[in-house]
Amino acid sequence: MNLTLKIWRQKDAQDQGGLVEYQVENVSTEMSFLEMLDVLNEQLVAKGQDAVAFDHDCREGICGMCSLMIDGQAHGPDKAATTCQLHMRRYKDGDTIVIEPFRAKAFPVVKDLVVDRSAFDRIQQAGGFVSVNTGNARDANGILIAHETAEKAMDAAACIGCGACVAACPNASAMLFVGAKVSQYALLPQGQPEREKRALSMRAAMDEEGFGHCTNEYECEAACPKGIKVSNIARLNREYLRATIVSD
Amino acid sequence: MQAAEAPAQAAPCRSCRAVEFLESSIGKKIMVALAGLFLCVFLLTHLAGNLILFLGGPAFDRYAQMLESNPLLPLAESGLVILFLIHIALAVRARLANMAARPVAYQVYKGKDARTPGSSTMALTGTLVLVFIIIHVATIKFQVGGAKGPDLFGHVTGWFHNPLYAGFYVVALIGVGLHLSHGVQSAFQTLGINHPRYTPMLKKLGAAFAILIALGFISIPIYFGFFNRAPATMQTNGSAMPIGPIGGAQ
Amino acid sequence: MKLESKVPTGPIEKSWDKHRFDLKLVNPANKRKFKVLVVGTGLAGSSAAASLAELGYNVESFCTQDSPRRAHSIAAQGGINAAKNYPNDGDSVWRLFYDTVKGGDFRAREANVYRLAQVSNGIIDQCVAQGVPFAREYGGTLSNRSFGGAQVSRTFYARGQTGQQLLLGAYSALMRQVGAGTVKLHSRREMLDVVVIDGVARGIIVRDLVTGKVERHWGDAVLLCTGGYGNTYYLSTNANGCNVTATWRAYKRGAAFANPCYTQIHPTCVPVTGEYQSKLTLMSESLRNDGRVWVPKKKGDDRKPDLIPENERDYYLERKYPAFGNLVPRDIASRAAKQMIDEGRGVSGSLSVYLDFQDAIKRLGEDKVREKYGNLFDMYHHITDENPYRVPMRIYPAVHYTMGGLWVDYNLMTTIPGLFCLGEANFSDHGANRLGASALMQGLADGYFVLPYTLGGYFAGTKLPKVTSDHDAFKEAESSVNAHTNKLLAVKGKNSPSVLHRKLGHVMWEKVGMGRNAKGLNEALQEIPAIREEFWKTVAVTGTGEDFNQTLERAGRVADFLEFGELLAKDALTREESCGGHFREEHQTPDGEAKRDDEKFCHVAAWEYKGEGKDPVRHEEPLTFDNVHIATRNYA
User: Which of B5, B57, B138, C513 could form a disulfide with B235 if both were Cys (CB 3.0 to 4.6 A apart)?
Assistant: First the structure.
């Protein structure tokens, strides 16, 4: 099939940027979306033009490197999938596809479709960990964790840090990402000693980065490639409120 | 670039937990939610009071007199104003921060159908409701635009004889309904109440509450503006009747 | 070049303890005076950087991705081994050691493997303490599952995302140190050279991938934790960004490269569908716990799988290897699949065999199967548009892991003093074939529990004069990096780097792949240099070196693959035996099993770079097996 792509091109962080139209021909339905972009880039490079920059790595939906707002949807039209898992069988001949970077003040554009998501690293640095030095651990079975609790913690821990929640949120809020991390540790006994400190400091770090406020529109949950639930946001609200009240 | 524009709300008093809370994204939303839920309680009592209009002028005016004569009324009214101010001020601040959180808008933004008509129009319906409240309080309480009848009942129903006023009332109340359709369940989520068993119920409750409030209030201008246009004076006779229990005024 | 393994003498059970005691210590107050550069943030890199910072060293961490959390360890699915013996099924440190040595087809260093088994339990404890949500039984204890090459259940897992969870654990430890200011993080940086001063590694040259700026970083030690070279084959289960550049450039500075021909072809991957395919996706080995592998008995049987009756199916792994069944080691399962396809009994219309879950679904119910493998099934469904709960998966082997890597001694130090190599990037523990769930174990063992000790020993026992990045060696390395970049930009040809990479991959897969023979290898040794020549004549790198340029990044990596591929083929040609993942068709038993030559090849082959255009020199480190009786592997 043949497609028209309207891709956001932006030389660097300072550049204004804008949509540029491209034609790609002979796209097969078996291709993944990123492979379709590979084809476009091979054509551009062969013509001596600058390839479209986009982040990608594992191409199996786990590293969280790929992003893209495809026709106004984070990671494209599929539910519970990353852009690299999107296949061209979703499209038909003659379609026009608009491709933009994830947009948020906290995710400045690096080039074209590549954005800087290091804000997530900084939030994690504020408290997304259990303070246990290597070698300090006791026997793993010394901590009993109910099957259901472990499963719930795992549901939250499945976050790949891709930032689709921020991209899809009308307010560019990072609450689903932070909620998932805070939840994982709040649910597990290992997270208890630093429970209040974590909720307070991760919240502060999140606001400092300039993410928006959550207005419970749940677009984050719909866009999340790992199906992280907004109940984690409720837990973050709860944890933060609780920490505010109980900690000195 | 983000470091240079560190948010202005970076807590002015770091040691002070309460200020930090109120300045925080989550704290602001929690306050908006709490104020919103209290306002829902007010809406319910206000609706109950208004429905007395259907019982006729004497009953309504007795109810009004009872309210007016309550010495705690000024206190309740100021409380209400404060709730509104908290709700509005913090929501506006959150909204401004949210607009700043995405300085370059998407060329195409579609989402994945999670938003509802209510959730995506909160700012719009909120503004509409605010304008409505100002007009409502000005015309009904402070009688801007003149008295429309000899007593409160006449005044209120008199306004509804104005199709423009009644129409605006209906539109504004649809706005209230939309606002509540998202606001109620959203408030629970913001307060951290989300449970696989109770949340679906709370969502239904929120929707039912929104419909109840909107339809309840809308029924009044519809009835008095379109179906019962008896001149206000006819009904005022009863206002001389001795004050008795509201339920007994039939 | 002398290969000194520095393996401690004495009984193997005591050797690590004794060695740790013998290593000199660095005074706590002095630790912060040492700067350690850690390249790569996968399991090995993150865990090492975090652990060293906790000890007080001054650490700088580098990764090519935008965040350290994205290193390809994240994609490991099935699990991590440990000798906990929680299921009470007879496991022990000794048995894990034994299984790993045997699984590696007797081509690994015994002492290293024993140490790996010894520290395996500590890894699980550490990860649990970090909050890694491993699967749990209803009573709250940890769950285990089985993996290939073992008859005990010793694999700990977090659904099909174990690598992700372990990496996020190590990443969280790393972030904690970054937050504390003890680790300086440099993301979107690619290491392009090692700086060697007076024979000792004292720094690295990196390119800032956003600005294009070439930076010099000095250090007292350099740790390469940069993963494997599976992408030499173009198509592999590796992430697109995985490359050999860091280790290859270290090789060119004097680090010996060991056993490059040991590549692991994973039996259960989603088959290739088209020419433009950019990667192959692994379906975790854990699926072989419940999935049954089969092909039609009849050649060219093109009926739909559900129309092929039970008695016309060949569950060939269960037939050929009744003791281990579907859980034979990877090299064996891969070769068996290839054999079936070569016999013309593959699934009609594609190069693949079936992995069937119907029995498991009948036995356990669909929900239980979903709980165990849900994300893998979803992944398969996304790629193929087929629902594996209804129709059997189609799978085929694909390049997955590389056992070869930089040669390291028992302290994980390469032949360049001060340059250490951890995780998949080194050659040390898996011999000629890695068992499932052992990569995560090794990466974390190296980072959490081995290197933090041995690095201290190096610092305490070595006099390191102060250096700065103004040293001539830094200048020389930086200008050689710049020259390489400019050379790539100057070609201005018509072929994008991926076109040439694909060409290399084709030769590698066809001639240096699952089955290798002298004829094919010799052809490859002709063809690879030809592609390399073509590359330097026709590669198209648009843009400049002074900004974010993914084409340039790619071209640099492909250039290195084109050099490295030749060494891989050369190693495969010289190793005149079949062992583990290295299968020489000339050396097989009558029923097609690998035939080792312990007489001539019971050694590690380590290659020394001798300069451009010169033949590398092959060194041997003999392997002795004092504890595990060397024998032909038998999984039947």
Answer: B57
Sequence-ordered strand ranges (E) for C523-616:
603-608
Average pLDDT along chain C: 96
Touch B-C: 3+ C-beta pairs under 8 A: no
Q: What are the extents of the domains in chain A?
A: 3-111, 117-246
C273·A116 Cβ contact <8 A = no
Q: Do C159 and A63 touch (CB under 8 A)?
A: no
Q: Which residues lie below 8 Å from residue A159, measured CB to CB, with a gap of 6+?
A: A177, A180, A181, A224, A226, A228
Q: What is the 3-state secondary structure (H, E, C) of C352-391?
A: CEEEECHHHHHHHCHHHHHHHHHHHHHHHHHHHCCCCCCC
Instruction: Supply the ipTM of this predicted assembly.
Output: 0.98
Which token pair is B119? 């959730």
Residue B84 covered by a domain:
yes
Rounded to a whole number of angstroms, the distance from the CA of C157 to the nearest CA of chain A is 11
**Would you call B119 and A217 a contact, using CB atoms and an 8 Å cutoff?**
yes
pLDDT in tens, C379-396: 899 899 999 999 999 999
Test A73 with B10 for CB contact under 8 angstroms.
no
- How far is residue C37's CA from residue C563's CA, in Å, rounded to a whole number? 26
Q: Which residues of C touch A48 (CB under 8 A)?
A: 492, 540, 542
Here the CATH number for the domain that contains residue C36 is: 3.50.50.60
The pTM is what?
0.95
Q: Which residue of B has its CA nearest to A183?
A: B192
Give the gap in angstroms from C-alpha A150 to the nearest C-alpha of chain C: 6
CA distance B30 to A238: 10
Q: What is the mean pLDDT of chain A?
A: 97
Q: Which residues of B191-205 are buried (b: 16+ CB within 10 A; e: fewer)?
A: bbbbeeeebeebbee
Check whether residue C431 and residue C381 sit in a common domain: no
The shortest C-alpha distance from A238 to chain B (Å) reads 4
Q: Summarize pLDDT for A141-163 with one digit per residue, the tens.
A: 999 999 999 999 999 999 999 99
Bridge-partner residues for B121, per DSSP?
Answer: none
Give chain A positions within 8 Å (CB) of B97.
212-213
Query: Domain count of chain B?
Result: 1
- Rounded to a whole number of angstroms, the distance from the CA of A93 to the nearest CA of chain B is 21
Q: Which residues make Cβ contacts (< 8 Å) with residue B230, sequence separation at least 6?
A: none
C303 and C228 housed in the same domain: no
3-state secondary structure of C451: helix
Integer CA distances (angstroms), C150 to B1, C434, C595, in order: 53, 12, 21
Give me the catalytic one of C330, C335, C575, C584.
C330
Residues in chain A within 8 Å Cβ distance of B110: 71-73
Q: Percent of chain C beyond pLDDT 70?
A: 100
Optimal mutation site among A215, A232, A236, interface B, most CBs of chain B within 10 A: A215
Q: Is B105 close to A8, i.e. CB distance below 8 A? A: no
Q: Is residue B218 part of a domain?
A: yes
Q: Which residue range is the domain that position C272 belongs to?
A: 266-399
User: C330 catalytic, yes or no?
Assistant: yes
Name which of C11, C451, C39 is nearest C224 in CA terms: C39
Which chain C residues have a beta carbon less than 8 Å from that of A138? 125, 129
* C201 and C244 belong to one structural domain: yes
> With an 8 Å Cβ cutoff, are A237 and B112 in contact?
no
Q: Does C452 touch chain A (CB under 8 A)?
A: yes
**Is C152 within the bounds of a domain?**
yes
Q: Which domain holds residue B95?
A: 17-105+117-234
C-alpha C310/C-alpha C293 separation (Å) is 13
Same domain, C244 and C322: no
**pLDDT 10s digits, B133-173:** 999 999 999 999 888 888 999 999 999 999 999 999 999 99
The CATH class that applies to domain A3-111 reads alpha beta
Q: Does a structural domain hold residue C611?
A: no
Q: Are residues C379 and C516 in the same domain?
A: no
- The total of structural domains in chain C comes to 3
